[in-house]
Amino acid sequence: MINKIYSFVEIARLDKPIGIYLLLWPSLLGYVLAGINSELELKNFLIVVFGSILVRSCGCVINDISDYKIDKLVKRTLNRPLALGSISLIEAWLFFLALSVMSLLLLFETNSLTIKISIFFAFLIILYPLTKRFFVAPQFILGITFGSGSIIAYSLESNIFSMSLAILYSGIIAWIISFDTYYAMEDKNDDEQIGVNSTAILWGNNSIIYSKILHIFFYMCLLTVGLINSFSYLFFLFFFILIYLFFHQSKIIKEEKYIEAFKINNWVGIVALASFTFEIIYLG
């Protein structure tokens, strides 16, 4: 019984929360950004946190349902519950349904605008695993989908979208494409053999330089949001930390430790969120 429960924990990746964090930080960036024009509510903060956990878990389960045959062929994923057989396909579908119902119940606690936006992006979450088969750059779909948390969280507090939100969302999409390309580089050889697409394959030897450009674009978007909203100089001091993380990540990439480079982005998200929180909530 304990082993079965842990298998469900594994298929939802609750034992590997890095993915939850990398969905949560962009969402909270959008939530905090909305604080420029409105007083943030604790209820909405909790919705963003629990929503990120549920949505990421849903995404992982549907991804494994879609890829369980492929996962058996990839060294990094062959021990996933579905590929290993510790969970049946029917059990995985039922678990996905349960997580989806919980997500919907949470969604119904929000406003009509948030519900409409969330339902639209929910279809992309389901579609994403399939894009690896027919779209040469599935990381772009991932960026659009997981970056949407910033828009959804913003809509909890405001029904008027700003230029700052559009810039932030653009930057977040670039950031997600960047760090997921590093993640994809770990599986590049296996993906090529089984015919799965990724930006790591599409860009080949240029993957690192393109990912760095996208990462820098994300930083520029954060700076632009700060300039548009006349943030204090303290906001820009946080960028010394972000710049350090960028060069530290570059050093790790040179050592071909792609998963470690991917994980550095958890700290990038924390620092970016801290800069927004300090400026908008504390000083604002």
Can you characterise this structure?
With 284 residues, this protein is mainly α. The chain has a single domain (2-283), classed as Orthogonal Bundle (Tetracycline Repressor, domain 2). The chain has 13 helices and no strands. It has helices at 2-11, 18-33, 42-71, 81-84, 89-107, 112-134, 138-157, 163-186, 188-194, 199-203, 207-228, 233-254, 258-283. The radius of gyration is 19 Å and the shape is globular. The N and C termini lie far apart (50 Å). The mean pLDDT is 93.
Secondary structure topology:
Blueprint: H1 2-11, H2 18-33, H3 42-71, H4 81-84, H5 89-107, H6 112-134, H7 138-157, H8 163-186, H9 188-194, H10 199-203, H11 207-228, H12 233-254, H13 258-283
Helix pairs in contact: 2-3, 2-7, 2-8, 2-13, 3-5, 3-6, 3-7, 6-7, 7-8, 8-11, 8-13, 11-12, 12-13
Write out key terms for the chains shown:
single chain, 284 residues, mainly alpha, Tetracycline Repressor, domain 2, 13 helices, 80% helix
Task: Please outline what is shown here.
Helices cover 80% and strands 0% of the residues.
